[in-house]
Design goal:
By secondary structure, this protein is an all-alpha fold. It has helices at about 15-20, 25-45, 50-84. The chain is built from three helices and no strands. Its main location: mitochondrion.
């Protein structure tokens, strides 16, 4: 597509000055760029599909790690007493 519609990661190094010249650096343009970046981040990392076996297994794995962390002091005291 046209150079002005490409994302930064799609622009080659030699095309960078020309691409920067097509950018809108007005306050409204910068605000629009920030908003577009936030929407992209939100869609990729926050607004993802929920459910499925992967999500449930990650939830269970997190619960196991959290439970182990809570009881680690207790486990370490018992293992220390058994070593004596």
């Amino acid at each position: 597509g046209p150079l002005s519609e490409r994302h930064l990661m799609d622009v080659r190094l030699g095309e960078l000055p020309t691409w920067l010249a097509t950018c809108d650096f007005s306050p409204q343009g910068l605000l629009g760029g920030v908003q577009k970046g936030w929407n992209s981040y939100y869609d990729k990392y926050i607004n993802v599909k929920r459910g499925g076996p992967a999500g449930i297994s990650m939830l269970l794995a997190g619960y196991c790690l959290l439970s182990y962390g809570w009881s680690y002091q207790h486990i370490s005291k018992i293992s220390f007493l058994l070593q004596e």
